[in-house]
Amino acid sequence: MTEEPKWTPSHMRLSPSKINTYMKCPREFYYKYISKLPEKKTIHLFRGTLVHKVLENLFKNKFKSLPQWEKGGPAIWIQGEFEKGWEEKIAKHKWLWEVHTKEEMDAMYIETEQLLQNFVQSVNKKLTEMVKWKIYKSKYQAWNAVAPKYAERWVKSHEYAIVGVIDVVCNDFDGGTTLLDYKTSKRYGPYLPEEYYRQLIIYAFLYTLEMGEMPNFVGVNYLRFDDTFFVKISQTQLDEAKDLIKFVHDAIKEREEHEGKYEQKPQNLCKWCSFYKGNGGPCDVTLPKWEPKYKRKSKETYKDIDSKFKGQIELDAQKQFPEFD
Ligand code: SF4
Questions:
Q1: CA–CA distances in Å: residue 20 to residues 51, 199, 233, 307
Q2: Closest residue (by CA) to atom 2 of ligand 1?
Q3: pLDDT digits over 138-172, tens only?
Q4: Cβ–ligand 1 contact at 156 (below 6 Å)
Q5: Is 200 in the pocket of ligand 1 (CB under 6 A)?
């Protein structure tokens, strides 16, 4: 019996965002990661980096213990870090003021400041209320549940040629592990978007490979709303992540550097794509015709229903109550 040849990754080192770009549109992936065409940068990118940096330092460097948190004035510290970071990471990019209006920039400033302050308040609230409601006996125990074990944990696999950065690794009572990813975007709904789900299972897969221990849960924390959505991890999700990584590597190996082989995926998001010809890019895709998600139905009256289903209702009634025949 001949042995199957060993699977090997493509030449590219992947990341969850590269995989998500490929799944969203292979042609966008080509422009971004193979041709390396420059993209239109916006404030959202810089704001995300700033918030992640501040939160990383919060637990990793500044407030490593409860006494430090209680005596160190985290709200004042975070405000200082925000103002310094805004100057260094955002204000100095004068061109951002050409991409966005002053109103947009001012709104983003206030929103980011509030988002960080809300984060400190939410930690304080958890510390106080978890003791008040007797979930934990003391604030020290509550601190262990709230403060992460690691902030900004890099995970990688040579075998699968992929790397990722997990924002937070937490341990629960029984030593179980939860991985969290912070999201600063306004996007929010009562569901977990597909690309977030992919990102989370990839983190779970890489963490398991690297630590030899499967996390119980992975989740996204929407910082604006202080709300978290979790995915329970089992071997099924790890296998799914592995298949996904291999799928994208195989697609790259097959397509190599041929632009035409990377399919265009026409979608409503094309209008915001840096590579769309309407935005000065090379992609000549034909935009799909816009259709409303929900078609408005004319309101039915009882009279309408009655007339439409009259025959059926009568028939059903006959079946249910044959004695009335
Ligand atoms: S414009 Fe649309 S089809 Fe073209 S690269 Fe961007 S997302 Fe893909």
A1: 22, 8, 20, 50
A2: 270
A3: 898 889 888 888 889 999 999 999 999 999 999 87
A4: no
A5: no
262 lines ligand 1 (CB under 6 A): no
Rounded distance from Cα 266 to ligand 1 centre (Å): 6
Amino acid at 29: F
Closest by CA to 7, choosing from 203, 242, 262, 239, is: 242
Task: Judge if the beta carbon of residue 266 lies within 6 A of ligand 1.
Answer: yes
Nearest to 275 by CA among 21, 67, 17: 21
Q: What is the pLDDT of residue 303?
A: 53
The phi and psi torsions of 25 (rounded to 5 degrees) equal: -165, 110
d(CA 84, CA 322): 81
263: CA distance to ligand 1 center in Å?
9
Q: Which amino acid is at 217?
A: F
Q: What is the pTM of this model?
A: 0.84
Question: What pLDDT shows up at residue 73?
Answer: 96
Q: Is the pLDDT of residue 293 over 70?
A: no
List the one residue out of 129, 120, 90 whose CA is nearest residue 108: 90
pLDDT at 310 over 50: no
52-86 per-position pLDDT tens digit:
999 999 999 999 999 999 999 999 999 999 999 99
CA distances from 26 to 37, 194, 233, 286, 297 (A): 14, 16, 28, 16, 36
The residue length of the chain stands at 325
Q: Which of 61, 144, 50, 146 is nearest to 91 (CA)?
A: 50
Q: Could you tell me the strand order of the sheet in which 177-183 lies?
A: 150-157, 162-171, 177-183, 217-222, 227-232
